[in-house]
Design brief:
single chain; mainly alpha; two-stranded antiparallel sheet; 2 strands; 6% strand; globular
Length: 68
């Protein structure tokens, strides 16, 4: 399961590195957020919400990847 953050990142055509840079964090920090190892700060959630044009609540919902 992944957060909708990943779905929106892909929809925007951004790499993980691009989004981490846009948020001002390391790639490792971004991975920790996405893998739910550490909490995502509210400032980062606000930035992502504005960047993707979605609500914070939507970004934190999990979705299942479909197999190919």
């Amino acid at each position: 399961m992944l957060l909708n953050i990943e779905a929106e990142r892909v929809r925007k055509g951004m790499s993980k590195e691009d989004l981490a840079f846009e948020l001002g964090v390391s790639l490792r920090t971004y991975y920790n957020w996405i893998n739910q190892l550490t909490a995502i700060p509210s400032t980062a959630l606000k930035k992502m919400s504005a960047l993707f044009g979605t609500s914070i609540e939507y970004l934190l919902v999990e979705y299942e990847e479909r197999g190919a």
